[in-house]
Amino acid sequence: MKIVMAIIKPFKLDEVRDALTAAGVHGLTVTEVKGYGRQKGHTEIYRGTEYAVNFLPKIKIEVAVPSDQADKVVEAITAAAKTGQIGDGKIFVYDIDHAVRIRTGETDAAAL
Amino acid sequence: MTLKTLIRAGLAGLAALTVAVLLIDPTLAQTAAPAAAPAAPAAPEIVVNKGDNAWMMTSTVLVLLMTIPGLALFYAGMVRPKNALSVLTHVFYTVCIVTLIWVIYGYSMAFTGGSTYVGGFSKLFLSGVTMESKAATFSVGVNITEYVYICFQMTFAAITPALIVGAFAERMKFSAVALFIPLWVTLIYFPIAHMVWYWAGPDAIDAAAKALAAATTPEAKKTAQAALDAVMADAGQVFLWGAIDFAGGTVVHINAGIAGLVGALVVGKRTGFGKELMSPHSLVMSMIGASLLWVGWFGFNAGSNLEAIGGAPLAMINSFVATAAAALSWMFAEWLVKGKPSLLGVISGCVAGLVAVTPASGYAGPMGAIVLGLIAGVVCLFFVSTIKNMFGYDDALDVFGVHCIGGIVGAIGTGILVAPMLGGTGIMDYTTGKVADYDFATQVWAQCKAVLMTLVWSGVGSFILFKVVDYTVGLRPSVEKEREGLDLTDHGERAYNM
To answer: Can you tell me the ipTM of this complex?
Structure first.
Protein backbone atom coordinates (compact mmCIF):
# COMPACT_ATOMS: atom_id res chain seq x y z
CA MET A 1 0.00 0.00 0.00
CA LYS A 2 1.14 3.47 -0.77
CA ILE A 3 0.19 6.98 0.18
CA VAL A 4 0.27 9.40 -2.70
CA MET A 5 0.61 12.87 -1.22
CA ALA A 6 0.40 15.87 -3.54
CA ILE A 7 0.73 19.63 -2.98
CA ILE A 8 -1.26 21.42 -5.66
CA LYS A 9 -2.64 24.81 -6.58
CA PRO A 10 -5.94 25.38 -4.78
CA PHE A 11 -7.98 26.08 -7.91
CA LYS A 12 -6.91 22.72 -9.38
CA LEU A 13 -8.60 20.70 -6.63
CA ASP A 14 -11.82 19.94 -8.48
CA GLU A 15 -10.03 18.78 -11.63
CA VAL A 16 -7.74 16.54 -9.60
CA ARG A 17 -10.69 15.04 -7.74
CA ASP A 18 -12.46 14.27 -11.03
CA ALA A 19 -9.33 12.69 -12.48
CA LEU A 20 -8.86 10.53 -9.37
CA THR A 21 -12.47 9.39 -9.42
CA ALA A 22 -12.00 8.42 -13.06
CA ALA A 23 -8.88 6.48 -12.06
CA GLY A 24 -10.86 4.43 -9.57
CA VAL A 25 -9.88 6.18 -6.34
CA HIS A 26 -12.69 6.06 -3.77
CA GLY A 27 -11.56 8.59 -1.22
CA LEU A 28 -9.01 11.23 -0.40
CA THR A 29 -8.09 13.68 2.35
CA VAL A 30 -7.67 17.40 1.65
CA THR A 31 -5.82 19.92 3.84
CA GLU A 32 -5.30 23.66 3.32
CA VAL A 33 -1.60 24.34 3.74
CA LYS A 34 0.94 27.09 3.17
CA GLY A 35 4.47 26.88 1.92
CA TYR A 36 6.99 27.93 -0.64
CA GLY A 37 9.12 26.38 -3.34
CA ARG A 38 10.58 27.86 -6.46
CA GLN A 39 7.54 30.11 -6.84
CA LYS A 40 8.64 32.01 -3.69
CA GLY A 41 6.02 34.44 -2.38
CA HIS A 42 4.37 37.61 -3.61
CA THR A 43 4.10 41.19 -2.39
CA GLU A 44 1.05 42.80 -0.85
CA ILE A 45 0.72 46.58 -0.60
CA TYR A 46 -1.24 48.22 2.22
CA ARG A 47 -1.39 52.01 2.19
CA GLY A 48 1.69 52.15 0.06
CA THR A 49 3.71 49.89 2.32
CA GLU A 50 4.89 46.66 0.69
CA TYR A 51 4.89 43.37 2.54
CA ALA A 52 6.60 40.27 1.20
CA VAL A 53 4.31 37.28 1.65
CA ASN A 54 6.63 34.27 1.68
CA PHE A 55 4.17 31.46 2.19
CA LEU A 56 1.54 30.81 -0.43
CA PRO A 57 -1.69 28.95 0.10
CA LYS A 58 -1.71 25.44 -1.37
CA ILE A 59 -3.84 22.33 -1.10
CA LYS A 60 -2.44 19.05 0.19
CA ILE A 61 -4.21 15.87 -0.88
CA GLU A 62 -3.50 12.42 0.45
CA VAL A 63 -4.70 9.22 -1.22
CA ALA A 64 -4.10 5.70 0.08
CA VAL A 65 -3.99 3.12 -2.71
CA PRO A 66 -2.82 -0.48 -3.33
CA SER A 67 0.81 -0.42 -4.49
CA ASP A 68 0.02 -1.43 -8.05
CA GLN A 69 -2.27 1.58 -8.52
CA ALA A 70 0.19 4.20 -7.27
CA ASP A 71 1.71 4.99 -10.65
CA LYS A 72 -1.70 5.45 -12.25
CA VAL A 73 -2.77 7.82 -9.48
CA VAL A 74 0.43 9.83 -9.78
CA GLU A 75 -0.12 10.16 -13.52
CA ALA A 76 -3.73 11.23 -13.03
CA ILE A 77 -2.77 13.92 -10.53
CA THR A 78 0.12 15.14 -12.68
CA ALA A 79 -2.12 15.48 -15.73
CA ALA A 80 -4.93 17.24 -13.87
CA ALA A 81 -2.87 19.62 -11.72
CA LYS A 82 -0.46 20.77 -14.39
CA THR A 83 -0.60 24.33 -15.70
CA GLY A 84 3.00 24.48 -16.86
CA GLN A 85 3.63 27.50 -14.64
CA ILE A 86 6.02 27.61 -11.71
CA GLY A 87 4.19 26.70 -8.48
CA ASP A 88 2.21 23.71 -9.79
CA GLY A 89 3.34 21.65 -6.83
CA LYS A 90 4.90 18.28 -6.05
CA ILE A 91 3.89 14.67 -5.50
CA PHE A 92 5.43 12.32 -2.91
CA VAL A 93 4.76 8.60 -2.66
CA TYR A 94 5.52 6.57 0.43
CA ASP A 95 4.73 3.23 1.98
CA ILE A 96 2.00 2.38 4.45
CA ASP A 97 2.74 -0.22 7.13
CA HIS A 98 -0.77 -0.96 8.17
CA ALA A 99 -4.35 0.25 7.57
CA VAL A 100 -7.62 -0.26 9.50
CA ARG A 101 -11.22 0.69 8.62
CA ILE A 102 -12.61 1.85 11.94
CA ARG A 103 -16.24 0.86 11.36
CA THR A 104 -15.62 -2.81 10.43
CA GLY A 105 -12.17 -3.53 11.73
CA GLU A 106 -11.04 -4.65 8.24
CA THR A 107 -7.33 -4.31 7.71
CA ASP A 108 -4.81 -3.44 4.98
CA ALA A 109 -6.00 -3.82 1.35
CA ALA A 110 -9.59 -4.43 2.46
CA ALA A 111 -9.53 -1.22 4.43
CA LEU A 112 -8.57 1.01 1.52
CA MET B 1 -1.34 61.94 45.04
CA THR B 2 1.37 61.35 42.42
CA LEU B 3 -1.28 61.41 39.73
CA LYS B 4 -2.73 64.68 40.96
CA THR B 5 0.67 66.28 41.17
CA LEU B 6 1.53 65.18 37.66
CA ILE B 7 -1.71 66.50 36.25
CA ARG B 8 -1.16 69.82 38.00
CA ALA B 9 2.36 70.00 36.62
CA GLY B 10 0.98 69.19 33.19
CA LEU B 11 -1.59 71.94 33.38
CA ALA B 12 1.03 74.45 34.42
CA GLY B 13 3.19 73.39 31.50
CA LEU B 14 0.32 73.79 29.08
CA ALA B 15 -0.49 77.23 30.39
CA ALA B 16 3.11 78.36 29.97
CA LEU B 17 3.22 77.12 26.40
CA THR B 18 -0.02 78.77 25.56
CA VAL B 19 1.26 82.14 26.70
CA ALA B 20 4.17 81.71 24.31
CA VAL B 21 1.84 81.14 21.39
CA LEU B 22 -0.22 84.12 22.33
CA LEU B 23 1.85 87.06 21.25
CA ILE B 24 -0.32 87.72 18.28
CA ASP B 25 -2.99 90.22 17.29
CA PRO B 26 -6.63 89.34 17.69
CA THR B 27 -8.77 89.81 14.58
CA LEU B 28 -12.48 89.56 14.26
CA ALA B 29 -14.42 87.07 12.22
CA GLN B 30 -16.95 84.35 12.75
CA THR B 31 -16.69 80.63 12.84
CA ALA B 32 -18.62 77.53 13.74
CA ALA B 33 -20.45 76.41 16.85
CA PRO B 34 -22.08 78.89 19.13
CA ALA B 35 -23.17 78.61 22.73
CA ALA B 36 -26.33 79.66 24.41
CA ALA B 37 -26.80 83.33 23.71
CA PRO B 38 -27.01 85.48 26.78
CA ALA B 39 -30.27 87.40 26.90
CA ALA B 40 -29.70 90.78 25.30
CA PRO B 41 -31.81 93.85 25.91
CA ALA B 42 -34.37 94.64 23.22
CA ALA B 43 -33.40 91.55 21.25
CA PRO B 44 -35.76 90.34 18.54
CA GLU B 45 -37.99 87.45 19.51
CA ILE B 46 -35.96 84.27 19.33
CA VAL B 47 -37.69 81.29 17.83
CA VAL B 48 -36.91 77.60 17.80
CA ASN B 49 -37.69 76.11 14.41
CA LYS B 50 -39.09 72.56 14.44
CA GLY B 51 -37.30 71.72 11.18
CA ASP B 52 -33.95 72.83 12.57
CA ASN B 53 -34.47 70.78 15.70
CA ALA B 54 -35.45 67.73 13.66
CA TRP B 55 -32.40 68.10 11.44
CA MET B 56 -30.08 68.52 14.40
CA MET B 57 -31.44 65.43 16.14
CA THR B 58 -30.91 63.51 12.90
CA SER B 59 -27.38 64.88 12.53
CA THR B 60 -26.58 63.90 16.10
CA VAL B 61 -27.38 60.23 15.57
CA LEU B 62 -25.56 60.31 12.23
CA VAL B 63 -22.38 61.38 14.04
CA LEU B 64 -22.90 58.54 16.52
CA LEU B 65 -23.20 56.21 13.51
CA MET B 66 -19.81 57.45 12.30
CA THR B 67 -18.18 56.27 15.52
CA ILE B 68 -20.13 53.10 16.22
CA PRO B 69 -20.08 51.11 14.12
CA GLY B 70 -18.40 53.18 11.36
CA LEU B 71 -15.01 54.08 12.79
CA ALA B 72 -14.94 50.94 14.96
CA LEU B 73 -15.33 48.64 11.94
CA PHE B 74 -12.96 50.70 9.80
CA TYR B 75 -10.27 50.27 12.45
CA ALA B 76 -11.05 46.68 13.43
CA GLY B 77 -10.73 45.51 9.83
CA MET B 78 -7.21 46.91 9.64
CA VAL B 79 -5.78 45.06 12.64
CA ARG B 80 -4.87 41.40 12.96
CA PRO B 81 -7.67 39.00 13.94
CA LYS B 82 -6.29 38.61 17.48
CA ASN B 83 -6.83 42.32 18.20
CA ALA B 84 -10.12 43.05 16.45
CA LEU B 85 -12.25 43.02 19.60
CA SER B 86 -9.69 45.14 21.43
CA VAL B 87 -10.06 47.98 18.94
CA LEU B 88 -13.84 47.65 18.84
CA THR B 89 -13.92 47.80 22.64
CA HIS B 90 -11.69 50.88 22.75
CA VAL B 91 -14.05 52.76 20.44
CA PHE B 92 -17.24 51.64 22.16
CA TYR B 93 -15.83 52.41 25.61
CA THR B 94 -14.78 55.87 24.45
CA VAL B 95 -18.26 56.72 23.24
CA CYS B 96 -19.82 55.67 26.54
CA ILE B 97 -17.37 57.30 28.93
CA VAL B 98 -17.25 60.60 27.03
CA THR B 99 -21.04 60.73 26.83
CA LEU B 100 -21.25 60.72 30.62
CA ILE B 101 -18.33 63.10 31.17
CA TRP B 102 -19.85 65.48 28.64
CA VAL B 103 -23.08 66.00 30.55
CA ILE B 104 -21.37 66.06 33.94
CA TYR B 105 -18.77 68.76 33.21
CA GLY B 106 -17.61 68.60 29.58
CA TYR B 107 -20.31 70.72 28.03
CA SER B 108 -19.81 73.36 30.67
CA MET B 109 -16.03 73.40 30.18
CA ALA B 110 -16.39 73.73 26.41
CA PHE B 111 -19.42 75.92 25.90
CA THR B 112 -19.78 78.40 28.70
CA GLY B 113 -17.95 81.66 29.16
CA GLY B 114 -14.86 81.52 31.31
CA SER B 115 -11.43 82.42 30.11
CA THR B 116 -10.59 82.45 26.43
CA TYR B 117 -8.91 79.03 26.91
CA VAL B 118 -11.50 77.06 28.76
CA GLY B 119 -15.09 77.54 29.86
CA GLY B 120 -16.39 77.63 33.39
CA PHE B 121 -18.48 75.35 35.52
CA SER B 122 -21.76 77.24 35.40
CA LYS B 123 -23.49 74.35 33.63
CA LEU B 124 -21.98 71.56 35.74
CA PHE B 125 -24.41 68.62 35.66
CA LEU B 126 -26.28 70.63 32.96
CA SER B 127 -27.39 72.94 35.71
CA GLY B 128 -30.13 75.31 34.55
CA VAL B 129 -30.76 73.54 31.26
CA THR B 130 -34.41 72.67 30.68
CA MET B 131 -36.65 71.73 27.77
CA GLU B 132 -37.14 75.44 27.17
CA SER B 133 -33.42 76.32 27.05
CA LYS B 134 -32.11 77.51 23.72
CA ALA B 135 -28.77 77.51 21.96
CA ALA B 136 -27.72 80.00 19.29
CA THR B 137 -27.27 79.12 15.62
CA PHE B 138 -25.66 81.27 12.93
CA SER B 139 -28.79 83.33 12.22
CA VAL B 140 -30.00 86.22 14.32
CA GLY B 141 -33.27 85.36 16.01
CA VAL B 142 -33.08 81.62 15.29
CA ASN B 143 -32.19 79.14 18.02
CA ILE B 144 -32.34 75.41 18.54
CA THR B 145 -33.25 73.58 21.71
CA GLU B 146 -30.20 73.43 23.94
CA TYR B 147 -30.59 69.71 24.64
CA VAL B 148 -30.09 68.86 20.98
CA TYR B 149 -27.07 71.17 20.80
CA ILE B 150 -25.61 69.43 23.87
CA CYS B 151 -26.17 66.00 22.30
CA PHE B 152 -24.78 67.09 18.93
CA GLN B 153 -21.59 68.43 20.47
CA MET B 154 -21.41 65.34 22.70
CA THR B 155 -21.00 63.13 19.64
CA PHE B 156 -18.05 65.27 18.50
CA ALA B 157 -16.41 64.96 21.89
CA ALA B 158 -16.91 61.19 21.66
CA ILE B 159 -15.51 60.57 18.19
CA THR B 160 -12.35 62.65 18.66
CA PRO B 161 -10.64 60.48 21.30
CA ALA B 162 -11.99 57.39 19.53
CA LEU B 163 -9.92 58.41 16.50
CA ILE B 164 -6.74 58.37 18.59
CA VAL B 165 -6.92 54.69 19.52
CA GLY B 166 -6.02 53.67 15.96
CA ALA B 167 -2.50 55.04 16.38
CA PHE B 168 -1.58 52.76 19.27
CA ALA B 169 -3.78 49.84 18.24
CA GLU B 170 -2.67 46.27 19.02
CA ARG B 171 -0.28 47.19 21.85
CA MET B 172 -1.99 49.35 24.49
CA LYS B 173 -3.54 47.79 27.57
CA PHE B 174 -7.25 48.36 27.99
CA SER B 175 -6.72 49.75 31.49
CA ALA B 176 -4.39 52.38 30.00
CA VAL B 177 -6.96 53.37 27.39
CA ALA B 178 -9.66 53.47 30.05
CA LEU B 179 -7.66 56.01 32.04
CA PHE B 180 -6.23 57.98 29.14
CA ILE B 181 -9.52 58.79 27.38
CA PRO B 182 -11.20 60.66 30.28
CA LEU B 183 -7.99 62.58 31.02
CA TRP B 184 -7.55 63.50 27.39
CA VAL B 185 -11.03 64.83 26.74
CA THR B 186 -10.89 66.82 29.96
CA LEU B 187 -7.53 68.50 29.51
CA ILE B 188 -7.18 68.57 25.73
CA TYR B 189 -10.51 68.32 23.94
CA PHE B 190 -12.74 70.56 26.07
CA PRO B 191 -10.28 73.49 26.09
CA ILE B 192 -9.63 73.26 22.34
CA ALA B 193 -13.35 73.03 21.53
CA HIS B 194 -13.82 76.11 23.71
CA MET B 195 -10.97 78.01 22.06
CA VAL B 196 -12.18 77.31 18.54
CA TRP B 197 -15.95 77.22 18.79
CA TYR B 198 -17.12 79.18 21.80
CA TRP B 199 -18.56 82.62 21.06
CA ALA B 200 -21.40 84.78 22.36
CA GLY B 201 -23.58 84.01 19.35
CA PRO B 202 -25.18 86.15 16.65
CA ASP B 203 -28.12 87.33 18.75
CA ALA B 204 -25.89 88.89 21.40
CA ILE B 205 -23.66 90.56 18.82
CA ASP B 206 -26.61 91.82 16.80
CA ALA B 207 -28.32 93.24 19.88
CA ALA B 208 -25.14 94.99 21.04
CA ALA B 209 -24.48 96.38 17.55
CA LYS B 210 -28.05 97.70 17.34
CA ALA B 211 -27.75 99.25 20.78
CA LEU B 212 -24.60 101.03 19.60
CA ALA B 213 -26.34 102.27 16.46
CA ALA B 214 -29.27 103.53 18.54
CA ALA B 215 -27.07 105.38 21.00
CA THR B 216 -27.25 109.13 20.50
CA THR B 217 -25.17 110.87 23.14
CA PRO B 218 -21.38 110.38 23.16
CA GLU B 219 -21.72 109.03 26.69
CA ALA B 220 -24.26 106.39 25.58
CA LYS B 221 -22.17 105.58 22.52
CA LYS B 222 -19.17 104.94 24.72
CA THR B 223 -21.14 102.60 26.99
CA ALA B 224 -22.70 100.79 24.02
CA GLN B 225 -19.30 100.39 22.35
CA ALA B 226 -17.89 98.92 25.54
CA ALA B 227 -20.83 96.54 25.71
CA LEU B 228 -20.28 95.45 22.10
CA ASP B 229 -16.57 94.97 22.74
CA ALA B 230 -17.37 92.82 25.74
CA VAL B 231 -19.72 90.64 23.70
CA MET B 232 -17.18 90.29 20.90
CA ALA B 233 -14.48 89.35 23.40
CA ASP B 234 -16.67 86.65 24.97
CA ALA B 235 -15.22 83.90 22.81
CA GLY B 236 -12.46 81.32 22.59
CA GLN B 237 -8.89 82.37 21.85
CA VAL B 238 -8.60 80.76 18.42
CA PHE B 239 -11.98 82.18 17.47
CA LEU B 240 -10.74 85.62 18.48
CA TRP B 241 -7.74 85.17 16.19
CA GLY B 242 -10.26 84.97 13.36
CA ALA B 243 -9.60 81.34 12.47
CA ILE B 244 -12.55 79.51 10.94
CA ASP B 245 -13.27 75.82 11.38
CA PHE B 246 -16.71 74.80 10.23
CA ALA B 247 -17.01 71.27 11.57
CA GLY B 248 -13.82 70.49 13.43
CA GLY B 249 -10.68 70.25 11.32
CA THR B 250 -8.59 71.55 14.20
CA VAL B 251 -10.75 70.54 17.15
CA VAL B 252 -11.35 66.97 15.98
CA HIS B 253 -8.83 65.88 13.38
CA ILE B 254 -5.56 67.73 13.99
CA ASN B 255 -6.21 67.35 17.69
CA ALA B 256 -6.72 63.57 17.52
CA GLY B 257 -4.05 63.09 14.86
CA ILE B 258 -1.20 64.67 16.79
CA ALA B 259 -2.30 62.94 20.00
CA GLY B 260 -2.19 59.67 18.07
CA LEU B 261 1.34 60.27 16.83
CA VAL B 262 2.52 61.15 20.32
CA GLY B 263 0.82 58.02 21.66
CA ALA B 264 2.42 55.81 19.02
CA LEU B 265 5.84 57.23 19.88
CA VAL B 266 5.44 57.01 23.66
CA VAL B 267 4.06 53.46 23.70
CA GLY B 268 6.56 52.30 21.07
CA LYS B 269 6.27 50.04 18.08
CA ARG B 270 4.29 46.83 17.97
CA THR B 271 6.38 43.77 18.70
CA GLY B 272 7.57 42.49 15.34
CA PHE B 273 6.85 45.76 13.54
CA GLY B 274 8.74 45.88 10.26
CA LYS B 275 9.61 42.19 10.44
CA GLU B 276 6.29 40.42 10.57
CA LEU B 277 3.33 40.70 8.25
CA MET B 278 0.76 42.99 9.88
CA SER B 279 -1.71 43.16 7.08
CA PRO B 280 -5.37 44.10 7.64
CA HIS B 281 -7.44 41.07 8.59
CA SER B 282 -10.69 42.12 6.93
CA LEU B 283 -10.77 44.89 4.37
CA VAL B 284 -14.42 43.99 3.84
CA MET B 285 -15.06 45.18 7.39
CA SER B 286 -12.98 48.31 6.79
CA MET B 287 -14.92 49.09 3.63
CA ILE B 288 -18.22 48.86 5.51
CA GLY B 289 -16.78 51.09 8.22
CA ALA B 290 -15.47 53.70 5.79
CA SER B 291 -18.82 53.82 4.02
CA LEU B 292 -20.64 54.33 7.31
CA LEU B 293 -18.17 57.08 8.13
CA TRP B 294 -19.02 58.83 4.88
CA VAL B 295 -22.76 58.53 5.51
CA GLY B 296 -22.46 59.69 9.10
CA TRP B 297 -20.20 62.55 8.11
CA PHE B 298 -23.17 64.34 6.57
CA GLY B 299 -24.44 64.77 10.11
CA PHE B 300 -21.00 65.94 11.18
CA ASN B 301 -20.50 68.52 8.41
CA ALA B 302 -23.97 69.52 7.26
CA GLY B 303 -25.17 69.30 10.88
CA SER B 304 -22.51 71.81 11.91
CA ASN B 305 -24.57 74.46 10.15
CA LEU B 306 -26.97 74.08 13.10
CA GLU B 307 -29.91 75.05 10.87
CA ALA B 308 -31.52 73.25 7.93
CA ILE B 309 -30.90 76.17 5.56
CA GLY B 310 -28.48 76.97 2.72
CA GLY B 311 -25.24 76.32 4.57
CA ALA B 312 -26.23 72.74 5.39
CA PRO B 313 -26.78 71.64 1.77
CA LEU B 314 -23.55 73.46 0.85
CA ALA B 315 -21.71 71.41 3.46
CA MET B 316 -23.49 68.34 2.14
CA ILE B 317 -22.45 68.78 -1.48
CA ASN B 318 -18.90 69.59 -0.43
CA SER B 319 -18.81 66.43 1.68
CA PHE B 320 -19.81 64.48 -1.41
CA VAL B 321 -17.41 65.92 -3.95
CA ALA B 322 -14.28 66.46 -1.85
CA THR B 323 -14.55 62.89 -0.58
CA ALA B 324 -14.96 61.39 -4.04
CA ALA B 325 -12.07 63.49 -5.34
CA ALA B 326 -9.75 62.41 -2.52
CA ALA B 327 -10.68 58.73 -2.87
CA LEU B 328 -9.84 58.87 -6.56
CA SER B 329 -6.67 60.91 -6.20
CA TRP B 330 -5.32 58.46 -3.58
CA MET B 331 -6.30 55.49 -5.75
CA PHE B 332 -4.82 56.81 -8.99
CA ALA B 333 -1.65 58.00 -7.28
CA GLU B 334 -1.19 54.56 -5.75
CA TRP B 335 -1.93 52.90 -9.08
CA LEU B 336 0.69 55.10 -10.73
CA VAL B 337 3.38 54.66 -8.09
CA LYS B 338 2.79 51.18 -6.68
CA GLY B 339 1.22 49.53 -9.69
CA LYS B 340 -2.21 48.60 -8.30
CA PRO B 341 -5.34 50.52 -7.37
CA SER B 342 -6.24 49.09 -3.95
CA LEU B 343 -9.53 49.07 -2.06
CA LEU B 344 -7.71 50.15 1.09
CA GLY B 345 -6.39 53.07 -0.97
CA VAL B 346 -9.85 54.13 -2.12
CA ILE B 347 -11.36 54.00 1.36
CA SER B 348 -8.35 55.68 2.97
CA GLY B 349 -8.61 58.46 0.40
CA CYS B 350 -12.31 58.73 1.20
CA VAL B 351 -11.54 59.33 4.88
CA ALA B 352 -8.72 61.77 4.02
CA GLY B 353 -11.13 63.76 1.86
CA LEU B 354 -13.76 63.83 4.58
CA VAL B 355 -11.17 65.04 7.07
CA ALA B 356 -9.89 67.78 4.76
CA VAL B 357 -13.32 69.08 3.84
CA THR B 358 -14.50 69.15 7.45
CA PRO B 359 -13.30 72.69 8.27
CA ALA B 360 -14.12 73.91 4.76
CA SER B 361 -17.50 72.28 4.24
CA GLY B 362 -19.61 75.33 5.05
CA TYR B 363 -17.20 77.89 3.55
CA ALA B 364 -15.80 76.55 0.28
CA GLY B 365 -17.67 76.25 -2.98
CA PRO B 366 -18.09 72.78 -4.52
CA MET B 367 -15.33 73.29 -7.09
CA GLY B 368 -12.97 74.49 -4.39
CA ALA B 369 -13.89 71.41 -2.36
CA ILE B 370 -12.94 69.15 -5.28
CA VAL B 371 -9.49 70.74 -5.46
CA LEU B 372 -9.11 70.36 -1.70
CA GLY B 373 -10.04 66.67 -1.96
CA LEU B 374 -7.62 65.99 -4.81
CA ILE B 375 -4.76 67.53 -2.83
CA ALA B 376 -5.66 65.80 0.44
CA GLY B 377 -5.70 62.37 -1.21
CA VAL B 378 -2.14 62.52 -2.52
CA VAL B 379 -0.67 64.40 0.45
CA CYS B 380 -2.05 61.85 2.93
CA LEU B 381 -0.85 58.93 0.80
CA PHE B 382 2.61 60.48 0.76
CA PHE B 383 2.59 60.75 4.56
CA VAL B 384 1.32 57.26 5.34
CA SER B 385 3.72 55.58 2.93
CA THR B 386 6.86 57.61 2.26
CA ILE B 387 7.13 59.79 5.39
CA LYS B 388 6.05 57.08 7.79
CA ASN B 389 8.56 54.63 6.34
CA MET B 390 11.28 57.25 6.35
CA PHE B 391 10.92 57.87 10.10
CA GLY B 392 9.82 54.39 11.03
CA TYR B 393 7.18 55.33 13.62
CA ASP B 394 4.40 52.81 14.12
CA ASP B 395 1.20 54.85 13.72
CA ALA B 396 -0.67 51.57 13.31
CA LEU B 397 -3.80 52.78 11.54
CA ASP B 398 -2.42 56.10 10.26
CA VAL B 399 -4.25 58.46 12.57
CA PHE B 400 -1.50 61.04 12.12
CA GLY B 401 -1.07 60.57 8.38
CA VAL B 402 -4.75 60.81 7.59
CA HIS B 403 -6.35 62.89 10.36
CA CYS B 404 -3.60 65.29 11.37
CA ILE B 405 -2.17 65.84 7.90
CA GLY B 406 -5.59 65.82 6.20
CA GLY B 407 -6.78 68.19 8.91
CA ILE B 408 -3.90 70.61 8.31
CA VAL B 409 -4.49 70.55 4.55
CA GLY B 410 -8.14 71.28 5.25
CA ALA B 411 -7.57 73.98 7.87
CA ILE B 412 -5.21 75.99 5.69
CA GLY B 413 -7.21 75.23 2.55
CA THR B 414 -10.29 76.61 4.28
CA GLY B 415 -8.57 79.95 4.75
CA ILE B 416 -8.00 80.09 1.00
CA LEU B 417 -11.20 78.54 -0.33
CA VAL B 418 -13.48 80.71 1.80
CA ALA B 419 -12.56 83.58 -0.53
CA PRO B 420 -15.62 84.70 -2.49
CA MET B 421 -13.51 85.01 -5.65
CA LEU B 422 -12.75 81.27 -5.39
CA GLY B 423 -16.41 80.39 -4.98
CA GLY B 424 -16.33 80.50 -1.18
CA THR B 425 -18.94 82.04 1.07
CA GLY B 426 -16.78 84.72 2.67
CA ILE B 427 -17.06 85.30 6.40
CA MET B 428 -20.11 86.85 8.00
CA ASP B 429 -19.68 89.96 10.13
CA TYR B 430 -22.53 89.97 12.62
CA THR B 431 -21.89 93.54 13.74
CA THR B 432 -22.86 94.78 10.28
CA GLY B 433 -24.97 91.82 9.17
CA LYS B 434 -22.90 91.57 5.97
CA VAL B 435 -20.13 89.39 4.61
CA ALA B 436 -16.82 90.88 5.71
CA ASP B 437 -14.00 91.82 3.32
CA TYR B 438 -11.68 88.89 2.66
CA ASP B 439 -7.97 89.25 3.09
CA PHE B 440 -5.84 86.29 2.02
CA ALA B 441 -2.82 86.84 4.23
CA THR B 442 -4.85 87.65 7.35
CA GLN B 443 -7.07 84.61 6.97
CA VAL B 444 -4.36 82.10 6.12
CA TRP B 445 -2.23 83.36 9.01
CA ALA B 446 -5.19 83.00 11.36
CA GLN B 447 -5.65 79.42 10.13
CA CYS B 448 -1.96 78.67 10.67
CA LYS B 449 -2.15 80.00 14.20
CA ALA B 450 -5.13 77.74 14.90
CA VAL B 451 -3.19 74.75 13.55
CA LEU B 452 -0.10 75.58 15.63
CA MET B 453 -2.14 76.12 18.77
CA THR B 454 -3.82 72.73 18.34
CA LEU B 455 -0.55 70.95 17.56
CA VAL B 456 1.19 72.41 20.59
CA TRP B 457 -1.66 72.09 23.08
CA SER B 458 -2.59 68.57 22.03
CA GLY B 459 0.94 67.40 21.28
CA VAL B 460 2.46 68.51 24.57
CA GLY B 461 -0.64 67.79 26.63
CA SER B 462 -1.04 64.29 25.21
CA PHE B 463 2.64 63.53 25.86
CA ILE B 464 2.20 64.45 29.51
CA LEU B 465 -0.99 62.40 29.80
CA PHE B 466 0.53 59.30 28.18
CA LYS B 467 3.43 59.56 30.63
CA VAL B 468 1.03 59.94 33.55
CA VAL B 469 -0.82 56.81 32.45
CA ASP B 470 2.45 54.97 31.91
CA TYR B 471 3.64 55.74 35.46
CA THR B 472 0.30 54.85 37.04
CA VAL B 473 -1.24 51.83 35.30
CA GLY B 474 1.36 51.22 32.57
CA LEU B 475 0.77 51.48 28.83
CA ARG B 476 1.93 48.18 27.40
CA PRO B 477 1.01 44.60 28.01
CA SER B 478 3.87 42.07 28.31
CA VAL B 479 5.36 40.83 25.04
CA GLU B 480 3.74 37.41 25.62
CA LYS B 481 0.32 38.99 26.02
CA GLU B 482 0.84 41.16 22.97
CA ARG B 483 1.86 38.07 21.00
CA GLU B 484 -1.21 36.21 22.13
CA GLY B 485 -3.43 39.14 21.20
CA LEU B 486 -5.31 41.69 23.28
CA ASP B 487 -8.69 40.09 22.56
CA LEU B 488 -7.82 37.12 24.74
CA THR B 489 -5.48 38.75 27.26
CA ASP B 490 -7.48 41.95 27.88
CA HIS B 491 -11.02 40.86 27.21
CA GLY B 492 -11.07 37.06 27.55
CA GLU B 493 -12.82 36.45 24.25
CA ARG B 494 -11.94 36.05 20.60
CA ALA B 495 -13.45 37.59 17.50
CA TYR B 496 -13.63 34.46 15.41
CA ASN B 497 -14.45 31.00 16.69
CA MET B 498 -14.07 28.79 13.68
So the answer is: 0.70
